[in-house]
Amino acid sequence: IGYGEFSAQRIANNFYKELIEKKEIVKLPSSEKEEKKNEIIIDEKYSDIDYKIAKCCNPVPGDEIIGIYTKKGISIHRSECENIKLNKIMSPFVKVDWSGEIHDFYLTKIKILADNRSDVTAGITRAITDAKAYLNFLNTTEKKNDRIAIEIFIKIKDQQHLSEVIALMKKVNGVREVERERI
Q1: pLDDT at 99
Q2: What is the DSSP string of 116-153?
Q3: What is the separation, in whole angstroms, between the first and last Cα of the chain?
Q4: How confident is the model at residue 10 (pLDDT cuts 50, 70, 90)?
Q5: Does the pLDDT value for residue 30 go beyond 50?
């Protein structure tokens, strides 16, 4: 688990299967058992293979994605990832897709151009909170013409959720441009 070769969920499932076989725990009927399915389908049939979301392009549900075989499982990238376009990744590819059952939040990067006002970042933070997304990181850089560039990382559910967050950010007084960074 520490090296990332096996997920904690996979190890727990293996222990669970052993305990059931040894009759040390009683298996509940499927209607009473709460199951969390993986959010990625690999090669149109597998959902129990270890995977990780690539940090270079931060795909979110709704993005077109591609899987790349690594020593530690499958790495999930956006189809338009610059590392793939520039042939920086030479590993074999595998067809992957979102399962449609999304439980987690996914990290994505947003770039904002705004007027240099004292209340702009507070308004952006409020927009993120109002959309029930999570702020992970915020950085501002002064630009010319009394403007600031704001780089943020937020955690969202999917592209629709991202669109809602962006729409709320665009309504913040002083915000000029908002876009998801295309990495």
Answers
A1: 83
A2: --TTHHHHHHHHHHHTT-EEEEEEEEEETTTEEEEEEE
A3: 29
A4: low
A5: no
